[in-house]
Structure formats: structure tokens, C-alpha cells
Amino acid sequence: MTGFIDTPAGPVPQVTTTRSSRDLWGTIGARIGIIRRNYKVAPGLYAVGSPGNQSAVLVSANYKLSFDALRHQLGGLDAWLLVVDTRGINVWCAAGKGTFSTWEVIDCVQRYRLNEVVAHRELILPQLAAPGVSAQAVRKGCGFTVLFGPVRAADLPAYLGQGNRCDEAMREVTFPLADRAVLIPVELFLLAKPLLAMLILGFLLSGISPTFFPLPRPWSVARHCSPPPGWACLAGRCSPPCCCPGCPAVSSGSKAYGPDCRRHWERGCCSQPAWRQWNRLP
Questions:
Q1: What's the pLDDT score for residue 18?
Q2: Phi, psi (deg, nearest 5) at residue 113
Q3: Residue 236 in contact with residue 253, Cβ under 8 Å?
Q4: In what order do the strands lie in the sheet with 122-125?
């Protein structure tokens, strides 16, 4: 935060579009999983640049990674950021869980007196918030029209430059390798505790002998037996995010179950023998 902008509704915090070293370390901690459950900003109205009463209002979640991704793409622009209380959950997941909802948007507009800050009546929401927000209900509840912007924050400058219009590329949801690879650190972090417990248990069990736990024996067993399960766990956690598109199913959450594989086959992406083989799985 760099200061405040005075508005008819009171002072509004002004934030920068650059990331500090603290933001960088926070991002690393969230990606690893250390602070993922409590990495959020306070809900409210924020200013980027020097916005006026005609500047765009961009709505986002109060998950810090979502907030940072948005403001980082707004360099050189003047805009208002309306941050909804999603309980520290990202936009897409919060829309599905009901925390990025119609009523939350209406409540934020009214609580932070947005109608006194801007002269227009338009809110630009992320496209991925659409499952949880009814544009018609928002208009009826607070008088603001909802515009669903592009999927990615990186397309916002082009979207605003085109008069709030999305092209087909901005509407397309992609999940490239780079986006999938960022899931690997948190997967490894979640595995660390059970893996460590398994290695300690194996170390203790390998030392049981008639001479009652001679140290050279468990160390020797650990040196020879620990690498295989370690490499197996590493491969098991790294392979799914990287190889997910190649699995014969549609839903990423149920890659090995018959119904999804059947739909995939019906679309011509999976052969009939493969479907029969998958359908026999329990």
C-alpha cells in the first residue's frame, strides 16, 4: 500500500502494481503449502494508479495470489479493485463453493458505497466467477451491471482497451504445462509428513534383531531401501500434473473411472477396447 485516495465514500487504500520481496516470499510459501490456508487480504475497495469516477471497477477474490495476479497486470492503468470476502479462496473455487456469490458482490457494493465513488454502474468480474454470480440478481440488488471479463488477468489491459470486449482467445480456458507444474510443490509438501513417518517407522522396524537395535543395521537398510520409495513418491506426485491431459478421461478429478472415460470414447478420443478395459475397474 502506497497511500490513500480521497473519495466521497472516504479514503481508499492505493496499492502498487509491482511485487515486493515480501510478496515473492508469500507466493513461495503459498505455492509450497505452508501458508496456503490463510493467505488473504482484507476485503474492501482499493485503488490502482489514480482512478476517477469513470474508471473501471474490477472485482476479485481476497485470496492474496488472486489479488496479486490482478494488480500486477494493471501497470500504467487507473482502476478500482473491489475485493470480495471469499474466505481466502481463489476465484474459481470460491464461485463453486458459494463464497464468491451474488450476495457477496451486492454486499460489497453497498458496504463500501461504490455508487458514491464511481459515476457509471458497471462491474467487471472474472469469467471464472460466473458459476457463482447471477448478473441479473446483482443488477436488481445494487443497480450495477455485471460484465464478465477475460479468463486471465494478463488479458485485462487489452480487454479494457477494446471497450470491455473479449475475443475468443480471452474466453478460452487453457491449462498449459507451466500452470500445472506450479501444483507440484504443494503436492510434495502434503506428502512430506506421511513419507517422513513411513521412513522413521521403516528405520525402527529394520533395527529389530536379537542384539536389540544395532545401529549399523538400520542405517545400512535405510541407505539401500529409502531411495526407491522416495523416487516412487516423487514420480507419483509429479506425473499427474504433467501428464494429466494425456489420461483417457474428461474430468481431471476422475481420470480412472468408467463414466468419464465413456464420454471421452464417445467423442472419438478413446478406442472401444480401452473403454471396455476401463469400465471393468471397481
A1: 87
A2: 50, 50
A3: no
A4: 3-7, 10-15, 44-48, 79-84, 56-61, 122-125, 145-148
Helix, strand, coil content of the chain in percent (nearest 5): 55, 15, 35
| Ranges of residues in the chain whose predicted pLDDT is under 70 | 203, 205-226, 244-282
- Distance, CA of 84 to CA of 125 (rounded, Å): 11
- Give the pLDDT score at 259: 42
pLDDT at residue 267 in the model: 41
d(CA 99, CA 43): 12
Contacts of 240 (CB under 8 A, 6+ apart): none
Q: What are phi and psi of 166, to 5 degrees?
A: -100, 140
pLDDT of the residue at 217: 64
Number of H helices, E strands in the chain: 14, 7
Q: Can you point out the beta strands (E) in the chain? A: 3-7, 10-15, 44-48, 56-61, 79-84, 122-125, 145-148
For 68, half-sphere exposure in the C-beta direction (CA atoms, 13 angstrom radius) is: 19
Q: Cα–Cα distances in Å, from 281 out to 240, 268, 272?
A: 19, 21, 15
Show the cell assigned to 231. Answer: 523416487
Cα atoms in the 13 Å half-sphere on the side-chain side of 28: 6
Quote the cell numbers at residue 140: 436488481
Could you tell me the pTM of the whole model? 0.73
* 45: phi then psi, degrees, rounded to nearest 5: -105, 130
Phi–psi pair at 76, nearest 5 degrees: 80, 0
